[in-house]
Amino acid sequence: MAKQSQATWGGRFSSGPAELMLQFSESVSFDRRLAPFDVAGSKAHSAMLAHVGIITAKERDAIHAGLDAVLAEIEAGRFTWSTQLEDVHMNIEQALTRRVPAAAKLHTARSRNDQVATDMRLFFKHACAVLSEKIRGAQQAVLAVAGRDGDVLIPGYTHLQRAQPVFLSHHLFAYLEMLERDRERFSVVADHANWCPLGSGAIAGTTLPIDREFTAKQLGFVDTKGRPRVTQNSMDTVADRDLFIEFAAACALFGVHMSRIAEDLIIWSSVEFKFIDLPDTFCTGSSLMPQKKNPDSCELLRGKSARLQGNLHTLLTLAKGLPLTYNRDLQEDKPPVFDSFDQTALCADVLAGTIAGMTVFRTRCAEAVADPALLATDLADYLVARGVPFREAHHAVGAVVKLAEKNNMKLDQLPSDEVRKLHPGFGPDWVEVFDLKRGMALRRGTGMPGPAQVKKQFKRWAKALS
Ligand code: ARG
């Protein structure tokens, strides 16, 4: 089974890896998607080698042309990937060497350890930008609903019990805040990714006179002033997997957010609530019950969030307890990261599509929010405004609620004299508190759901998301 080693590292081996070992240890089946980043890294590295005189300009140009040709082949789907060659790095290098003899010099002062760290940093910068845009798409869909139906009032909930009235827009703007924090997190991850590992070598750099800053600049690892950013410790550089964990954590937290949003939509679309209808295009039916319309996209968003959390957990567990520096365990870092990226991208699009297509049932919302109990706190505030300590006011309104329950009446329908007997603070105008418009207008502080605030927030988001 074992054969003479063909691998780039095969010099000291008398036998190649067993067939089973090849299958077991290959990563090309999943890391081939790093090809564009790997090629970019190799171009920058060879440009640097020419810059410091380790290779000639002619050799550099030949390597660049060869890399372009290999990448073109990969992108056209004509490249033959070989598991014998383990990973994306060796596949590309071997294909290049077959075309360009000078490619034998490409791996000078470089190891796959700093190479894969570089590829992944380039990947993370790209992935964060993609996800940020997709989440923004979901935010735009949310904002469009606020633009259409934002004037609708609904009960806000705590403990899934009706609490206080809010404009639907206010509820939707809460989603925008959550998603904005997600976007911020991805921009922080992208910034953390923005340091160039090349030059760290396998663990201890190189004896050759390379120019790390040159390579960093070539690859766009620069600060806002264009100054190169290179990692500061060769051992940490090849051992560090913080970014993988940070990226997966940002995806997992986005997952928690989308899952909570999805849950709201599931509840709102149930017959018991009927505040909204979800688009047919993102729902499915039952194979047995003809009447069913199930909120599957929302349920899957909720389900996918579990998967995103699992990926984060895999990475945390993978890295814990590993001795410095690189260990082959770390090859297992890529599948969870790629899965988190792919699923997050998909989920953000599905969230956007589901929200964009939802219909708000204005009448049902109006009926739900007409419940005067939602303004019981306002009645306590009314007493406070008349000099009653809040604890006492709370107690007095509690008695009003009890009376209403006993008589099976709505709060605002109780006989005025009965209510006024419960506390001397209740004036003849106590019932005016149940004017919903009045109650909303009074909520004018920053971050509150009053109409003036909601209008302001709408403008703020419209500007931010335009
Ligand atoms: N495929 C490897 C990985 O993803 C590349 C690094 C290999 N380094 C090594 N020393 N074997 O981790």
Notes on the protein architecture:
With 466 residues, the chain is mainly α. It has three domains: 22-108, Orthogonal Bundle (Fumarase C, Chain B, domain 1), CATH 1.10.275; 113-366, Fumarase/aspartase (Central domain) (Fumarase C, Chain A, domain 2), CATH 1.20.200.10; 371-459, Ribonucleotide Reductase Protein R1, domain 1 (Orthogonal Bundle), CATH 1.10.40. The protein is built from 18 helices and four strands. It is elongated, with a radius of gyration of 31 Å. It starts with 18 loop residues before the first helix and ends with a helix. Bound molecules: arginine. Residues 27, 31, 87, 112-113, 116, 326, 328, 330-331 line the site of arginine (ARG).
CATH class of the largest domain: Mainly Alpha
In total, the number of domains comes to 3
Structural class: mainly alpha
Give me the CATH architecture of the largest domain, please.
Up-down Bundle
* Number of E strands: 4
Number of H- or I-type helical stretches:
18
Which molecules other than protein and nucleic acid are bound?
arginine
**Radius of gyration from the CA trace?**
31 Å
Any low-confidence stretches, pLDDT <50, length ≥5? none
Layout of helices and strands, plus pairs?
Layout: H1 19-25, H2 28-31, H3 35-51, H4 57-75, H5 88-99, H6 112-149, E1 153-158, E2 161-167, H7 168-193, H8 212-218, H9 234-239, H10 242-269, E3 276-277, H11 296-319, H12 334-356, E4 359-360, H13 362-369, H14 376-385, H15 390-406, H16 416-422, H17 436-441, H18 451-465
Antiparallel strand pairs: 1-2, 3-4
Helix pairs in contact: 3-4, 3-6, 3-8, 4-5, 6-7, 6-12, 6-18, 7-10, 7-18, 10-11, 10-12, 11-12, 14-15
The structure holds arginine (ARG).
